[in-house]
Amino acid sequence: MKKGDKVRITKVFDDSYYKRYVQEDNIYTISYVYKFGFYFTDGEKNFFCSSRNDRDFEYELVDEQFEKQKNVFPRVDINLNTDEIVAQLKEREEKIDKVNHPSHYQTAGGIEVIEYIASLLGDNVKYYYLGNVIKYMSRFDKKNGVEDLEKARFYLNKMIEMEDK
Known about the structure:
By secondary structure, the chain is α+β, with helices and mostly antiparallel strands. It contains five helices and five strands. It has helices at 64-72, 82-95, 113-121, 125-139, 146-164; strands spanning 6-12, 27-34, 37-41, 46-50, 57-62. Helix 4 packs antiparallel against helix 5. The relative contact order is 0.09.
């Protein structure tokens, strides 16, 4: 556990002092860690957790990348009729950004492959971007249509961002 990590309060006991201030299922940021506990904040108030707080609330560390994925893929309510389920699935599909942040290019640590490639190539990454612009422009009418044009635009915008710096 370190400063900046996230914790979720999973349970606040009814007789706890924290009941008025800390909400269950909220995510808080650890602001200071020391030998016998830590401080956490909601951005406005700071709270203290020591080894004695186990009678006040329970918490768990949060993996931010998992939280992001969890929010992108909400569960479908199985008590809905078929049309409502299909509508929820379509809404979910729209939330997945296939062009700018495709999930299949995310590493387990949350780093996008494009960021890794950019770190390896430095300023020469512009040639990688150019190659992708050419690839997607060359195949758009044979493969994915507008989606490939959007991908070409994505890489072209990356090149423009580099030149504007």
